[in-house]
Amino acid sequence: MYKEQIKKYIEDHKQEMLEDICTLCRINSEKMAYKVGMPFGNGTFRALGVALSMAEKYGFITTNYDSYVGTVDFGAMERHLDILAHLDIVPAGEGWTETEAFEPVVKDGKLYGRGTADNKGPAVAALYAMRCVKELGIPLKKNVRLILGTDEECGSSDIAHYYDIEPEAPMTFSPDASYPVVNIEKGRLAGHFTAEWEESEALPRLVSFEAGIKENVVPGKAFATIELGNLTLDDIRPIIDKAETELDMEFQVTAQDSLEDDPIYTITAIGAGAHASSPEAGKNALTALLDLVSRLPLAECAQVEYVKKLVKLFPHGDVHGAALGIDMQDELSGRMTVAFSMLKIEEGSLDGTFDSRCPICSNEENTLEAVRSRMAEDGITLLNKSMTPPHHVDGNSDFVKTLLKVYEDYTGRKGECLAIGGGTYVHNLKNGVAFGAAMPETDNRMHGADEFAVVDELVVSAEIFAQVIIDLCS
């Protein structure tokens, strides 16, 4: 019902919708320093103000929650459906070729610019869906609310502030992923651990080890500084060459300036980075270099023993936590993944972090406490007190089945539920799912140079959202 009217309305207003998206995308709304009345800086403050002004122009009720969040309401009816989007962006970065980051442009059916896909384009598509229902005069019995956040990229403190004031709606979807419906998001344990020991000056020795840039990134490089004492580079070269072959890793060795007679070298492992939710897509330089260091003929000491303990806990290539004792999986959400992502070893201590994405069957007892116990056996202290639980919305609920049916009706594609290792804006909402606004095969280059949204996907998303509003709220 209403499909032809919806499609005609959105097509007639397509250019206006694109212009509104461009207006928002010209604003650099990355998180900036706090100012009075601007919790995330001037950029997000401006973007939120412009977006709420748009909504007011189209006849909607708007509310500004201390410039953390803005809301757009269809009417004063009982709240039933929330659409959760965000207006903040990641920094522009370098390498743009199609246009400048804040000069959005349409080329070959794609709208280029920072925020076009993540998430200003989908936010405006949702606004136009509401406008479509309103201006076609389709009666609703319950309210739909568009929630516009401003801190999704840096911790979602905006939404925490909002939900301290407002209750959740019975149903929420966020157009900040891809179709069809993401109803399962794995849990997460970003394990932080430490250990200390008595220092040793015996040679040869490991002076330092450092790898990792963020806890959720598989490190593509790792660095170990070695003081060889009476050994030479020729003495350890065969070990390095063998490890390169067995670990499928490149190791580069460079000499360091030293005031002592003992030669000091830095070994750099060169692998391939990846997101921690898909560690199998990368080549972990940290675990490979740790393995190599454990093979070197270093003087026996507590530090070397801890290196060997870490190799046993995180063997190179183990991306499922088998050695930690947490390799588990279930039919709905798939298998546990583990990425050893950050490590610093000094003469008397280590500090490390791993990132695990945990299936529905995971919990604090069989994951967090299991890791704590396993590490304690080797004298390593896991500092975490809790973990983020998995998120699951029943795929057979009327809410999810409605989303899938509308998706199928408007795209001609098969609708299905998806499980992902990452987390979205709705992870902590009881009945929240991610829904759109990109087709499954589309790589929008989110967070990268030349980010884009496919114009036809924005159009069909506005159509889909309008139909969902009607089906759930009329």
Description:
The chain is of the alpha+beta class. Helices cover 31% and strands 26% of the residues. The chain has 11 helices and 26 strands. The chain has helices spanning 3-12, 14-25, 42-57, 120-135, 157-165, 233-247, 285-295, 302-313, 364-376, 398-411, 455-473; strands spanning 61-65, 69-73, 79-86, 105-107, 110-112, 143-149, 171-174, 177-178, 181-185, 187-196, 205-211, 217-218, 221-227, 250-256, 264-270, 274-275, 329-330, 334-335, 337-345, 349-358, 381-382, 391-392, 417-420, 432-434, 437-438, 452-454. The strands form 7 sheets. It has an 8-stranded antiparallel beta sheet. The chain has a 6-stranded mixed beta sheet with strand order 1-2-6-3-7-24, with helices on both faces. The longest helix has 19 residues, at 455-473. It is elongated and about 85 Å long. The termini are close together. The model has no long low-confidence stretch (mean pLDDT 96).
Short description:
By secondary structure, this protein is an alpha+beta fold. Helices cover 31% and strands 26% of the residues. The protein has helices at residues 3-12, 14-25, 42-57, 120-135, 157-165, 233-247, 285-295, 302-313, 364-376, 398-411, 455-473; strands at 61-65, 69-73, 79-86, 105-107, 110-112, 143-149, 171-174, 177-178, 181-185, 187-196, 205-211, 217-218, 221-227, 250-256, 264-270, 274-275, 329-330, 334-335, 337-345, 349-358, 381-382, 391-392, 417-420, 432-434, 437-438, 452-454.
